[in-house]
Structures are given as C-alpha cells and as structure tokens.
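Reviewers of the previous submission asked for a worked example of the structure-prediction workflow described in the proposal, so we include one complete record here. The input consisted solely of the amino acid sequence. No template or homolog information was supplied to the procedure at any stage.
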Amino acid sequence: MRLRILSTSLPCLALLFLPGQPRAQGVTTGAPPPAEKTADTGAPATASPFPPAFPGQTNAPAVTSQTRYQVTTIASGFDFPWAIAFLPDRRMLVTEKHTGNLFIVTQAGEKSPPIAGLPPVDGRDQGGLLDVEVAPDFATSRLIYWTYYEPRATGNGLAVGRGKLKEGAQPRIEALRIIFRMKPTLDSTMHAGGRMVFHPDGTLFVTLGERSILPGRVQARQLNSHFGKTVRINPDGTVPDDNPFVNRAGARPEIFSLGHRNVLSAALDGRNRLWEVEMGPLGGDELNLVEAGKDYGWPTIGYGREYSGAPIHDSAQGPGMEQPVYFWDPVIAPSGMTIYSGNLFPEWKGNIFIGALAGHALVRLVMKNDRVQGEERMHPVGNARIREVVQGPEGALYLLTDEPSGRLLKMTPR
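From that input alone, the workflow returned the following structure tokens.
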C-alpha cells in the first residue's frame, strides 16, 4: 500500500541562495589522473566487471561551476510530479505520476484544477502519467501530448495520447486520441520509458523501456517488439517514410533505435541530434547519442550487474552494437534531462543537465567533441530527489522534486 500525503499548492516567495556545488570529495571506482577527483554519486560502486572501451568513458574529472545561482519555489503540493512542458505564454503543464493528474501552473504559482478528459492510467509502482509535450503548432492547433501506462485487459503498456486543451474554470481535453500504443501488452509495472522529444522536422521521438521482467528484457533487440526501443512517429501517429526499418519484413515500422533498457531522459542538442540517458542495472547507467537504425546492445552487452550482484553480460562490447558515450559506476538513477542552450548561464552552454535520483543531485556534464570532459554534482534542492529538469523559454532551469508533496522550482543567476 502506498502512503500518500496530500496538500494544496501554495506559491512560495522563499529563495535559496546557493553557490555552485563544491568539488566532490569522494572518488568513484576507476583510475582518474593523479590529483583529480571524480564526481561522487553518494551511491556504492559496483566495480564494473569490464574496463571502459575508451579513455573518459566513465569517471570524468570533477568540475565546479563558477556560476552562482538562486532557487525559487514556484509551487508545491504535487503528488510525485514527473514532467514539465511550457505553454507559449510561459505557463507550465505539470504531470503527477500516480494520480494521473495534469495541471496548468502560472509563473506566480497558481495551479489550475486537474485537467479533465485524460484517460485512466495504471499508476502502480513506476507507472502512471509521465511526460507531457506541447505541440510545436500549439498556437493554432491547441494540441498537447502525453505518455502514460495504459491499463489493458491482460496487462498494460506505454501509450501516447493527444488532445486539444480547452481552458476555463475547469480546463479539459477535447478530441482525445491515442496515437501510439507500445506492443505487445505485458503485465509489468516497470520500465516502460516514456520521454518524448519533438524534432524540428515535425516528428516525435518516444522512448520505450523493456519492461524489466525477463519476458520483456529478451525483446529489447528484437524488431518485432517495441520493448527497449526509441520510436519515431508523426504527430498523428503515422510512421515517417524514412524510418530505418519501415520496409523490413517483420519489423515494427515505428522503431528508430533498439537495444535500450529504460530510457527516462532524452533531449536534442544544438545540432538537433537525439541524446538519451537510460536507467541501467548496478553500475550501468548510460549516456547515448541515438542514431537511426543503431543497436545499443541491451541486454547482450553492458557495464553493469544485476541488482543482486550477479553478472548479466559476457562482454561490454559486441559486433554491430554501439558503445555508450559515457557510463556511471556507481549509478546516478537518471530522470529528466536538458542540454543547455540559453543565455542566462553562459558558462553552462552546451552542458548536459540530468536529474539524479541517486545522490539527490543535478548532474552537469561538460562536453567537447561528443565526449564528457568533466562532471559536477550540484545540489540545488537540498536532500530531495530531482525528477525533472528542463530549460525554460527565458533560459532558467526548472526542476521537479520526486516526493509526495513535490515542488516546482526555478534556477536563475544570483
């Protein structure tokens, strides 16, 4: 039984004034250069059974921001919130995972009643209402999109819904349509993925997990299953003609990439390339640059172990399978992700920010030539778990805390 703490949402004027995160004091497993420390997750290392494939693939040197920032609480009282999306006027859509509620929140912290008209969710365990995105043409179409665990007769599966947002005293969704359903159906409350990213070409990426349990895990590299895949669809749910497997017999045509475990973080970089961070086993969280038709190897290859400590893989490398750009040991338990492109924090341009549920941190990766040059563990919200991080239209960073009275927070320069 899950104990819930329910509270109302109240704007908060309190500010937390924080400098950049001090240099991490712990050293993770691996062999960093002398006199350099690696970023400390606060979680135990598992001693990956395999060495990295290239220098810098793990345990990057710790770095420290020179930028000072402040954190403002915009609103609180969300029941395990999961995602943020911005409307054109800078109001936000915020999802609650287990309840299946979706709210409109103003910059002043005013929260609408739950938006009516969304379909029911399977809110057990890792399930519920997950990501939300605003259509690129929202100003004319009024369409929003969301991912959720869809209850089905023999189990559940991730689905993508869309509908027109009708505002008023009781906002609601009209013209509801389910544009994508993960297949096959499986009775699992875990690892369905659920992040969405719109590409400038108009297509929509959706990340899908392999459902955790063995009957799903073994399908992560099989093209007749959506499990463990990134899919690419048109906004109406149809399949783009240039998808990599669209003409492959027996393959699901929505598939863009395969061999993933549970992708909960995804974002485009300045070149409109898709990056993702996937939740791995012990010692196996991965940062990947996702490209069309490529196989990222799960569960055949990887750097981690089972949660029991038992081995999973015979090797961390294999023919025809991609290496992660970076992996973590100990893990960070990744959540939301953004690649910073704003002007409020010039030092952070091009850096990748990832919510880390393990260690209750915001991870900053300094990148150069598609390699991690440094890693910082920031703690802008104290000891709370960070579920979501997104860049706002003005260049601020917005966060959600993963707790029964979750907070919506804003990071700006001090």
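Residues 138-141 form the longest helix (4 residues). We consider this example representative of the routine output the project will generate in years two and three.
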